[in-house]
Amino acid sequence: MADAPVARRRVAPYAVAAVAIVIAGLVWVLVTAGDTSTTSAGSPLLGRPAPAATGVHDDGRPFDLSRRKGSWVVLNFFTHDCVPCIREHPELIEFADQQRSLGAAGAELYTIVQNSSRDEVAEFFAERGGDWPIVFDERSEFQNGFGVALVPETWIVDPNGVVRRRIIAEVEAEPLSTLIQDLREGAL
């Protein structure tokens, strides 16, 4: 029995050290998290051709991602009632305006709709603005092809049809524009 207090004294410093390491790790994660607008995630698609995916524009016209080769394409996965989607929407408006001002050199933004009706999406855009193309993923080709489970999620496809980035957080206009410019210039 006399050995029990001695054993506790030997274990205590290790327990304190383990807790300190865990706390330090959490602090490091919080400090380095910083700008979540370009938080990229790994994917087997990065550096490979974008999945063959088709959908339907909000006006009923077909949309085929493979026909967008020659342009930088930004796919923003969305549902009308997703709180982060609502928060990032003003940033997407700003981003779309920035890219439009670049003319033919600007990236094309597409909202890829999941689990929202045409009426819900129309009401969302009428209330909040935004005039870029909306694509309904009626057969889940985009969702399955890109492996999107949660929204918002944003993907960047280069003019050769190669997937360059996957962003798994709300986007902001300036960092997104800068990221595309860096990719365009070969800096990344």
List keywords for this structure.
188 residues; alpha/beta; Glutaredoxin; 2 domains; 5 helices; 7 strands; 17% strand; globular
TL;DR?
The chain has 188 residues and is of the alpha/beta class. 42% of the residues lie in helices and 17% in strands. The protein has 2 domains: 1-33; 36-184, Glutaredoxin.
Q: How does this model look, in words?
A:
There is one protein chain. The protein is α/β, with parallel strands linked by helices. 42% of the residues lie in helices and 17% in strands. Strands 2-1-5-4-3-6-7 form a 7-stranded mixed β-sheet. A hairpin with a 5-residue loop joins strand 6 and strand 7. It starts with a helix and ends with a helix.
Order of helices and strands: HEEEHEHEHEEH
- Proper CATH architecture of the largest domain: 3-Layer(aba) Sandwich
Strand residues, percent: 15-25%
The CATH fourth-level homologous superfamily of the largest domain: Glutaredoxin
- Main beta sheet, described? 7 strands, mixed
Number of domains: 2
Helical amount among residues, as a percent range?
40-55%
Oligomer: single chain
Which class of secondary structure composition applies to the elements?
A: alpha/beta
Gyration radius from CA atoms, angstroms: 22 Å
CATH topology of the largest domain: Glutaredoxin
